[in-house]
């Protein structure tokens, strides 16, 4: 079963969009021995090649997590912020954030926080550094922070911040481990991308420079299996989710069918995903250059973009198995 | 050629964004006899080449009309009923009670877009149109059979035939943008009887309705010297503000930041030469057509946009006048036939020497 | 039987007969049944009434009826586009971008619907007085002409068909089938049939038909709205009327309570013959039952309705099994009918 220690290290690492260096160093420590060639490009993507010849396939998982940035200092010990990526305001109050140097802050709301009656706007929120003298100590305007929370394990369910998309990174690393030493029919580029949460900026650059034949993105997807929420069919524990469509990307039917064939042949549990609201690096890869047909293996995840993103370890394993099954054979689209 | 029969074929086939196979096959069949070579791109767009008579390397003009239509996709199955997400900008206000096809692994199933009857609605719900998440597809089948035959991710299309109106007007689904595919066909047909030196690259693009993806990819791959995109525009009807363009009044040529002014002028001159009425369509910013993606490809591509006036856009009674399609085809063909070696040197903003002086 | 029934239903569904101008569907019904009928009268309302051949004089006088008209539009003006007003209880949701056939010449028209690009967020349903129709040409239709919605008849499965005007025409198909069956084996009753006009305008045709025919008892066929549909989460109410669930017997209507002896009788017949039925207590509006039961000195009457999904839509759904079972139920009810039923 998937390596929980690896997952823990990845989800607890710090790396808001544009500041992925700690995550990149961590991932590099795992993959250095696995890749035939390894480089970091101008956008900060970590690109790992495995194998040579055959079809060029780019596998993308993003390193960055949603975060926030200090926009102004307020009265001593408080600062205002804006978002980098899709923070859910309703879930922020009382949450803690962490800066690169380890400084911790708490998110508060103007007025009586005990009885908030309506949805706050971001202008009503602030960070409280729990200090009584200086403004946030070493924190300055422009400093980035990420939400902080440790991993919790309940049976097969893993709960943590930034499962989106460190769990995709974990799937990629596990697949690299499984493929190491095998003779590969394809030229694989495992790309740990930057700035997905602010518009897939890393993935677009990597696709331009690698110019692959096909793309596969690993990312989380939402589920429809919680109370009064039946808008989509994906559920936790239902297996790897093979994406059909999301709001920014239509998976070419031939790639979807290939994934289904490989999953069925390898006995991997899967479900089909139709997601409205949200997209992945695949939308940027597929629209790069003359178009790079791309598919997505999604890890079902509850409460995406909160500090309690929840996945099922069996789904994670299914995603690893499906990815390995796809990559160890010719990519027959 | 029989434009009405051609448009009927194109309108009635089922090819939503990302699932354009049926359209691609029908258009290939129509364009094959009219062109020298055809290919299908990685993204699924169809490109047909009609080579010019000029010496190599020849200049290339790209004509681009999108072949995808708006549709829906099964997002989950609720007992005997299918819930759907949109594939392109489907208008949930105008589809209740209309017939659909659900395209399953084992062929298409007929159904209808269902909504609860008025007697089951709250007084609030009775005052407004249903939202997409409130409606569903009813196949008239029991839940077990639905579970056996339908998968999440199966696509759904509207299923209505072309409907003939008076005065050579027709109404139907997917007229956006198959009417413009028909314009390209009419152009290719007219070019059989005209001499042209440039290569003509006729593109039936995919995935326009979900972000201009096909045109973006083909513009990058083909890198034409100039491009003309074709799409539908608005005809007069209540609740649609001006500018609108009367059905049968000619094919509007767009003017604005998305288009090269010199190319605009050149097409306008062609219309004047043919004594053809050519309404001007002001588009101050984004055109929301394939032209928007093509213009900024690679080193930039001089781009123009011709439109077919259409009523009731994004419904199953998109209404056009066949005469506009025929006129558009003729205008394009005459413009292409007049393209010569010097043409590109005319597609400039300012005289280059002036720019140099300024820099110096 | 299913093949014949399916074909009859398709013809009936596709025929036009907007309330107040039922000519085409009436002609079709006459053609389908005339060999089995005598004393055919098309009365002043446009009802088609007749006596079943082989009926017994001086026996219990029974009326069997089915409505033949459908919801539609009437042309009310002609400028750039035609304007139109509703005929019948129109569900405006079905008018958006609808296709219609106008007048006896069946001129094609489409109902204008402004593109979402220009009307995004305008979700309020319009008043049904602002319906505009485009025929492509000018002055192509006259004020006062009716426009019928275009349905899209299709067989969705061996049992379920899709089409327009099933609210009336499913009942017509049942009555046509029953007339045929009764002609094969006449019963000791004096049977009159009425295909009624203007059912969708407060059931007024049936009033006149009953006045003229003066039945001692009436069985009224009709359509009933299904509610076996997805409900909002948290709404756990069980459906009362299911597609394929059998004949709907109305226990309550807006303007009155059906004859309880007849209702109990039909229910009993259904149970002894093992025929499915469902009781609907929703207060149906403007039904013919209310009208017929109050004609003359009061006519004991009961409705037997065919379940229809999306009854007022151009594309409703019916189950052929429901039609067959409804015909069987009414046939069985007639076969056992004696004047005694009405004595207590």
Features:
heterotrimer, A: alpha+beta, 9-stranded mixed β-sheet, 6-stranded antiparallel barrel, 7 helices, globular, C: 344 residues, 8-stranded mixed β-sheet
Q: What would you note in describing this structure?
A:
The complex is a heterotrimer of chains A (333), B (360) and C (344). Chain A is of the alpha+beta class. In chain A, 25% of the residues lie in helices and 29% in strands. The two termini of chain A are 29 Å apart. The model of chain A has no long low-confidence stretch (mean pLDDT 94). Chain B is an alpha+beta fold and 360 residues long. In chain B, helix 4 packs across helix 8 (322-337). The longest helix of chain B is centred in the middle third of the chain and has 17 residues, at 175-191. Chain C is globular, with a radius of gyration of 20 Å. Helices cover 27% and strands 26% of the residues of chain C. Chain C has 344 residues and is α+β, with helices and mostly antiparallel strands. An eight-stranded mixed beta sheet of chain C has the order 1-2-12-3-13-16-14-15, with helices on both faces. A six-stranded antiparallel beta barrel of chain C has the order 4-5-8-7-6-9. Chain C has a three-stranded antiparallel beta sheet with strand order 10-11-17. Chains in contact: A-B, B-C. Chains B and C meet through strand 7 and strand 10 of B and strand 7, helix 3 and strand 11 of C.
What's the short story on this structure?
Chain A is an alpha+beta fold. Chain A has helices at 4-12, 21-31, 163-179, 201-210, 253-266, 281-286, 313-327, and strands at 37-40, 46-50, 56-62, 67-73, 78-84, 96-99, 104-109, 125-128, 144-147, 152-154, 157-160, 187-193, 214-221, 240-246, 249-250, 270-274, 294-300, 309-312. In chain C, the strands form three sheets. In chain C, strands 1-2-12-3-13-16-14-15 form an eight-stranded mixed beta sheet, sandwiched between helices. A six-stranded antiparallel barrel of chain C has the order 4-5-8-7-6-9. In chain C, strands 10-11-17 form a three-stranded antiparallel beta sheet.
């Amino acid at each position: 079963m998937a390596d929980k220690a690896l997952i823990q290290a990845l989800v607890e690492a710090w790396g808001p969009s544009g500041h992925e260096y700690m995550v990149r160093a961590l991932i590099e420590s795992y993959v250095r021995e696995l890749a035939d060639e390894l480089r970091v490009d101008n956008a900060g993507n970590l690109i790992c090649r495995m194998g040579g010849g055959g079809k060029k396939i780019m596998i993308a998982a993003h390193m960055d997590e949603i975060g926030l940035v200090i926009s102004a200092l307020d009265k001593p010990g408080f600062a205002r912020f804006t978002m980098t990526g899709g923070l859910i305001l309703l879930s922020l109050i009382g949450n803690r954030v962490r800066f690169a140097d380890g400084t911790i802050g708490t998110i508060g709301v103007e007025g009586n926080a005990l009885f908030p009656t309506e949805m706050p706007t971001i202008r009503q929120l602030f960070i409280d550094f729990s200090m009584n003298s200086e403004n946030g100590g070493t924190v300055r305007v422009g400093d980035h922070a990420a939400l902080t929370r440790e991993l919790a394990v309940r049976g097969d369910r893993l709960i943590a911040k930034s499962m989106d998309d460190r769990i995709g990174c974990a799937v990629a690393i596990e697949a690299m481990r499984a493929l190491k030493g095998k003779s590969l029919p394809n030229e694989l580029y495992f790309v740990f991308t930057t700035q997905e949460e602010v518009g897939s900026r890393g993935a677009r650059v990597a696709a331009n420079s690698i110019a692959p034949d096909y793309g596969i993105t690993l990312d989380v997807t939402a589920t429809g299996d919680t109370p009064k929420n039946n808008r989509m069919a994906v559920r936790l524990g239902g297996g790897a989710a093979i994406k059909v469509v999301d709001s920014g990307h239509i998976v070419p039917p031939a790639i979807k069918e290939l994934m289904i064939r490989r999953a069925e042949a390898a006995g991997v549990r899967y479900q089909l995903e139709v997601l409205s609201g949200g997209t992945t690096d695949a939308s940027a890869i597929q629209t790069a250059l003359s178009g790079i047909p791309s598919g997505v293996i999604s890890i079902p995840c509850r409460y995406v973009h909160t500090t309690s993103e929840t996945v099922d370890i069996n789904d994670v394993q299914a995603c690893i198995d499906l990815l390995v099954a796809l990559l160890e054979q010719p990519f027959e689209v | 050629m029989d434009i009405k029969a051609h448009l009927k074929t194109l309108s009635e086939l089922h090819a939503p964004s990302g699932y354009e196979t049926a359209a691609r096959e029908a258009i290939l069949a129509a364009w094959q006899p009219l062109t020298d070579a055809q290919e299908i791109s990685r993204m699924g767009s169809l490109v047909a080449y009609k080579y010019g008579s000029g010496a190599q390397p020849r200049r290339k003009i790209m004509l681009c009309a999108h072949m995808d239509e708006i549709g829906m996709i099964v997002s989950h199955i609720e007992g005997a009923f299918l819930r759907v997400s949109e594939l392109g900008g489907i208008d949930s206000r105008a589809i209740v009670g209309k017939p659909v096809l659900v395209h399953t692994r084992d062929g298409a199933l007929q159904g209808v877009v269902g909504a609860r009857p008025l007697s089951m609605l709250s007084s609030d719900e009775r005052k407004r149109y249903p939202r997409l998440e409130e409606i569903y597809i009813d196949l008239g089948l029991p839940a077990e059979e639905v579970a056996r035959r339908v998968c999440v991710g199966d696509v759904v299309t509207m299923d209505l035939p072309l409907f003939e109106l008076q005065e050579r007007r027709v109404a139907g689904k997917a007229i956006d943008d198959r009417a413009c595919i028909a314009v390209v066909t009419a152009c290719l047909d007219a070019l059989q009887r005209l001499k042209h030196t440039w290569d003509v690259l006729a593109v039936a693009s995919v995935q326009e309705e979900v972000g201009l993806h096909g045109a973006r990819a083909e513009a990058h791959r083909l890198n034409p010297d100039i491009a003309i995109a074709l799409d539908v525009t608005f005809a007069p009807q209540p609740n649609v503000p001006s500018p609108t363009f009367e059905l049968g009044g000619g094919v509007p040529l767009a003017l604005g930041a998305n288009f090269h002014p010199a190319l605009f002028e050149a097409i306008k001159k062609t219309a004047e030469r043919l004594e053809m009425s050519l309404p001007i369509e002001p588009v101050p910013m984004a055109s929301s057509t394939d032209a928007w993606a093509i213009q900024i490809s690679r080193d930039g591509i001089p781009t123009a946009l011709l439109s077919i006036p259409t009523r009731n856009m994004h419904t199953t009674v998109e209404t056009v006048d066949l005469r506009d399609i025929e006129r558009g085809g003729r205008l394009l063909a005459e413009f292409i036939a007049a393209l010569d070696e010097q043409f590109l040197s005319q597609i400039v903003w300012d005289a280059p020497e002036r720019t140099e002086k300024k820099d110096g | 039987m299913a093949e014949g029934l399916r074909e009859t239903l398709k013809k009936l569904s596709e025929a036009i007969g907007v309330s107040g101008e039922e000519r085409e569907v009436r002609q079709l019904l006459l053609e389908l049944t005339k060999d089995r009928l005598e004393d055919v009268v098309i009365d002043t309302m446009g009802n088609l009434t007749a006596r079943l051949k082989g009926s017994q004089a001086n026996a219990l006088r029974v009326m069997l009826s089915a409505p033949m008209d459908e919801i539609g539009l009437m042309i009310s003006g002609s400028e750039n586009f035609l304007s139109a007003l509703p005929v019948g209880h129109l569900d405006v949701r079905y008018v958006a971008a609808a296709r219609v056939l106008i007048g006896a010449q069946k001129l094609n028209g489409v109902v204008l619907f402004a593109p979402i690009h220009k009307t995004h967020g305008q979700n309020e349903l319009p008043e049904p007085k602002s319906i505009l129709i485009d025929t492509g040409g000018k002055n192509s239709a006259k004020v006062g002409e009716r426009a019928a919605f275009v349905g899209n008849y299709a067989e969705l499965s061996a049992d379920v068909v899709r089409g327009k005007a099933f609210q009336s025409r499913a009942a017509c198909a049942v009555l046509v089938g029953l007339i045929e069956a009764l002609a094969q084996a006449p019963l000791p009753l004096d049977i009159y049939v009425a295909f009624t006009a203007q059912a969708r305008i407060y059931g007024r045709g049936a009033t006149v038909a009953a006045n003229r025919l003066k039945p001692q008892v009436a069985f009224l066929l009709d359509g009933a709205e299904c509610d076996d549909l997805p409900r909002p989460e948290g709404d756990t109410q069980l459906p009362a009327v299911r597609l394929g669930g059998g004949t709907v017997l109305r226990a309550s209507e807006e303007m009155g309570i059906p004859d309880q002896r007849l209702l109990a009788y039909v229910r009993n017949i259904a149970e002894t013959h093992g025929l499915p039925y469902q009781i609907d207590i929703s207060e149906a509006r403007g039904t013919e039952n209310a009208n017929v039961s109050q004609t003359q000195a009061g006519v004991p009457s009961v409705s037997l309705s065919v379940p229809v999904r999306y009854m007022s839509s151009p594309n409703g759904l019916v189950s052929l099994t429901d039609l067959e079972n409804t015909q069987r139920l009414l046939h069985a009810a007639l076969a056992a009918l004696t004047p005694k039923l009405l004595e207590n």
